[in-house]
DNA sequence: CTTGAAAGCCGGTGGTA
DNA sequence: TACCACCGGCTTTCAAG
């Protein structure tokens, strides 16, 4: 599944809406020197292509009571059980990311918990029963950077 | 910096807008059985409290050419250089997260790169010069789960 | 991609409890 | 303080060109 070629207008639009999902489309239109309808059509196109997958409000985890963020490397007892474990992890709301990775771990997940005690209970009561051989936990004291990937459309290089 | 007490209306609003930043406030209002102005005011309150930190469109990294996602554990040469390294990492757009963690690493970051070659060049040309003693890279083949933390307001337990 | 127009929303004001 | 009703101006969305 390769990626699609985006033109300059797509790129401008993505840059503007990526960091502010509630920006009025007309404002985007003015910034891009096109009509509002054009923005509407492009955003629909980008959505249909699966490039835009939705929008989110960004919520400060600490401010709603999630004081502990942790990454956990998982060793499975049965390396065949990826899919069933992934499905089980889906049902644990504290798990916000789940990766299938190279290296020593079979899986690698990110968790938000209310505090260290809550984190321990998630690991002990919810994760271990899934058939894990062992886990390694990495607690984050502080998330210094949290942002989206850069939006840089690789254009065919033009000679100057 | 503890967290604020949210009531049921705040919680309902957060749940609705967290997963869809462009939902009309009036639709939220109808779902919550209050007026549109009430939603408007609550969202402003939540923003002022710092609970809402903005909004984002969710973009599929692969669809815009980022085929490699990796986590990197960093050992610093000089453990005092957190702040300057963090600042330097800010200037590297491929770095999307940066954590200060417990355990063996001094820092832990997440990176999006176009491909393995691009990832290597980021590590070699941009990260190593910052004064790192060593790095450990964990490449993600597949991100099976990617979502926000659960919004569960701890209410004072009410007897039934 | 544009214009144009209808439908509907946003964000403010003032009033009520 | 928190909610509601109301209104002007702007946005969104869908034609058609």
TrEMBL record, chains A, B:
Example of a GO MF term: sequence-specific DNA binding
Keyword S-adenosyl-L-methionine: no
GO BP, one annotated term: response to amino acid
One of the record's GO cellular component terms: cytosol
Alphabetically ordered keywords of this record: DNA-binding, Transcription, Transcription regulation
Record-annotated HTH asnC-type domain positions: 6-67
Alphabetical list of PROSITE patterns matching this protein: HTH_ASNC_2
This protein's name: Lrp/AsnC ligand binding domain-containing protein
Organism phylogeny: Bacteria, Pseudomonadati, Bacteroidota, Bacteroidia, Bacteroidales
């Amino acid at each position: 599944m390769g990626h699609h070629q985006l033109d300059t207008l797509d790129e401008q639009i993505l840059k503007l809406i990526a960091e502010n999902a509630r920006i009025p489309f007309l404002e985007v239109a003015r910034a891009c020197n096109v009509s509002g309808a054009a923005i509407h059509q492009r955003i629909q196109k980008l959505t249909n292509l699966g490039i835009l997958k939705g929008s989110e409000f960004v919520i400060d985890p600490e401010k709603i009571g999630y004081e502990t963020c942790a990454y956990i490397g998982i060793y499975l007892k049965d390396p065949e059980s990826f899919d069933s474990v992934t499905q089980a992890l889906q049902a644990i709301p504290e798990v916000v990311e789940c990766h299938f990775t190279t290296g020593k771990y079979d899986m690698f997940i990110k968790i938000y918990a209310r505090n260290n005690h809550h984190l321990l209970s998630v690991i002990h009561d919810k994760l271990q029963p899934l058939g894990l051989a062992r886990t390694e936990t990495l607690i984050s004291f502080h998330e210094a950077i949290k942002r989206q990937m850069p939006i840089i459309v690789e254009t065919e290089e033009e000679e100057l």
